[in-house]
Structures are given as C-alpha cells and as structure tokens.
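TA notes, week 10

Several of you asked for a full example with nothing omitted. So below is the full record: structure tokens for the whole chain, then the designed sequence directly under it. When grading your own attempts, check the secondary structure regions first.
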C-alpha cells in the first residue's frame, strides 16, 4: 500500500516508516523538518518536504495514497501552555487541513497519533479507553479535539480512523538503523541519556514524595518499535473493517523514575549525578494503562517494552551519536 506518513522524519515516524518498508508497503514521508531530521528518513522511503498547514502541498502529496498515518504535530506539554497559538496551528489547523485535503483527494482512511494526555488526572488505574477525558494541558486538548473531529469526519464524510493514544514513547530501533536523536528533548529517558553522555551535568527527579512504592513518579513506558507495530495492525484492521477505533498503546505496567535511573546506571556503567527537585506542576503520581483493547481487537502485543531492551536500544542510539 502507498501510505502518506506525516511527521515521518520524526522520532516515532521514522520507526513507523521502517516497519512499513519491511512489511512491503510504500511509505511517503511528508515532513517540514521543523522537528524531524533528514537523518531519520529511512532509505527506501519517498520523501516530500512539505507542511500540513499548506492545503496545496498536502493535496499534491495525497496523489495515489490509500491510507494516511498522521503523526505530524508538536508534543511538548509545557510549551503548549506558554505558546498555545503554535499548538492550535500545527495540531488543530494542520489536522483540519489534512482531513479536508483527504476528502478532496478521496482518501478515506487515517491512523492518528493521539496521546495519554487526553485523559488528564487518572481516576481509575489502569486507564481504559472509556476513562473520562479531561486534558490538563493545551497539548492534550488539541489531541482530544482532533479525536472529536475525526468522529464527525467519519459520520459526515465516511473517513474511517484508528486513533492511537500513546503512553510514554521510549527506546530506539532494536536493529540500530535509526540514529536521529530528538533535539532539545524534554522527556525523562533522553534527559537521562544526555547525562550518561556527559552532555548535561545531572538529572533532576521531579519529586520523591509521591504515594508510589519508592516515592517517584510512575509511568507506562512503551518502546517506540512496539508503537510502530501497532500501526501495521491498524492498517490490517482498516483494510478488513469498515469502522473506526480508538485504542491505547501501552504496556499495562508502571515503572518509576528511580527504577529507570537505576537500570540506566547499571547498563551504561556511568554513575551520573542525580538530585531531587520539587514535583513538576501538573504531574500525576502514577499513570499506566490497559492495553487489553489493542490486544483483543488488533491482536497487538508489545515485545520490546521491557526496561532492559528500552535502556539498551536507547544507549546504542546515543553512543552512535557520540560527539568527538
Ligand atoms: C516522565 C516521568 C516526570 C523529566 C509526557 C506527556 C504525555 C506523553 C509523554 C505525548 C514523570 C519524571 C521527567 C525529568 C523527572 N507525550 N521526570 N525528571 O510527563 O509522563 O508524559 O510525555 O503525548 O502526554 O505528558 O513524560 O518523560 O516528561 O516524564 O523526574 O527531568 O519522569 O515527573 O514522572 P510525562 P516525561
């Protein structure tokens, strides 16, 4: 299948494109390179430098496309609160521009990367797809709004979708083929590995007095290659079924900040400096999700999301980027 991957030069996009190629599909990467990098465009994939905010560029890219995988967007939760207009343009207007172009081009299937951020403060754990949605950030709001728009585009224009609510995406390609690191990362794992490499002097744990086993925050960390394999399952689903679906991509397991730091220190042999700081505003103590629906409906299971594989694959990616 010829598949347009918006944001295909990004962290998650590059892993999705790799698996599409391996499964014999023809991915077309559509990316404005504002966050993604050319390093991340996998050999064998077609590349179009373009912006989802440009109706003419999107329409041209949709030529001959059967399914869109829509990953383009901004994802820094904190920045979305200080620069909401950027998030409104890229995540909301960009998605609307893409959906309208899909109608014009007659493309009827989309896989959309949504987020755990649509849920907000957990009321029940593990979080299931019917958990109330009350985003705590403008970023989460933009993802939820696009989910709602998709339901309307389905009803009014027959566009079928699979929405994936990703939990904490981590890890790198187990084959070591994807080497592009995120620029100015804001998430825990890349911050830790920058300390391993000596690119930053310490890691700050945001709070050690949460009601969790060791007092540090707990999250559901999912390997990016497991996220990617979910997209292949979604393609099969959209091929066989004429209906839409919203599912979590998660592991069902929570891991604490302290556990991750310990695992990275062990694997890397680097005893980087760790300090305890105050809790980050808006951070829930723990989040983990049920992945039962993805298993039951899509036949998807995570296989790379154990902490050892996450740490090993990330370490290799950072070693490959060692500055001389
Ligand atoms: C993980 C844990 C921090 C940095 C965000 C979004 C979510 C999704 C994933 C996109 C928390 C702690 C972090 C540090 C720390 N994104 N931490 N020191 O906040 O769980 O989730 O990214 O859709 O929607 O909200 O991810 O990696 O920032 O934090 O102690 O320097 O690490 O408090 O417990 P988060 P994160």
């Amino acid at each position: 299948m010829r598949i347009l991957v918006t944001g295909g030069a990004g962290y998650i996009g590059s892993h999705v494109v790799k698996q599409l190629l391996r499964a014999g599909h023809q991915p077309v990467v559509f990316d404005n390179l504002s966050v993604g990098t050319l390093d991340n465009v996998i050999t064998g994939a077609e590349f179009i430098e373009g912006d989802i905010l440009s109706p003419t560029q999107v329409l041209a890219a949709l030529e001959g496309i059967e399914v869109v995988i829509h990953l383009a967007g901004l994802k820094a939760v904190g920045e979305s609160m200080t620069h909401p207009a950027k998030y409104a343009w890229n995540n909301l207007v960009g998605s609307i521009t893409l959906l309208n172009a899909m109608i014009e081009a007659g493309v009827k299937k989309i896989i959309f990367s949504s987020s755990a951020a649509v849920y907000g403060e957990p009321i029940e754990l593990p979080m299931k797809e019917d958990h109330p949605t009350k985003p705590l950030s403008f970023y989460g709001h933009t993802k939820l709004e696009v989910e709602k728009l998709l339901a309307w585009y389905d009803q009014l224009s027959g566009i079928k979708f699979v929405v994936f609510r990703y939990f904490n995406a981590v890890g790198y390609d187990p084959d070591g083929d994807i080497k592009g690191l995120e620029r100015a990362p804001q998430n825990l794992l890349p911050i830790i590995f920058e300390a391993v490499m000596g690119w930053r002097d310490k890691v700050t744990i945001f709070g050690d007095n949460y009601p969790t086993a060791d007092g540090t925050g707990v999250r559901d960390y999912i390997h990016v290659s497991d996220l990617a394999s979910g997209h292949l399952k979604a393609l099969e689903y959209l091929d066989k079924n004429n209906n839409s679906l919203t599912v979590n991509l998660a592991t069902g397991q929570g891991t604490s900040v302290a556990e991750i730091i310990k695992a990275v220190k062990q694997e890397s042999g680097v005893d980087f400096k760790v300090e305890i700081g105050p809790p980050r505003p808006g951070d829930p103590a723990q989040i983990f999700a049920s992945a039962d629906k993805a298993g039951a409906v899509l036949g998807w299971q995570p296989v790379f999301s154990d902490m050892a594989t996450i740490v090993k694959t990330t370490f290799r990616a950072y070693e490959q980027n060692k500055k001389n």
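Residues 75, 77, 115-117, 166, 168, 187-188, 191, 203-206, 217, 219, 257, 280, 283 surround WQD (CB under 6 Å). Use that as a sanity check on your answer.
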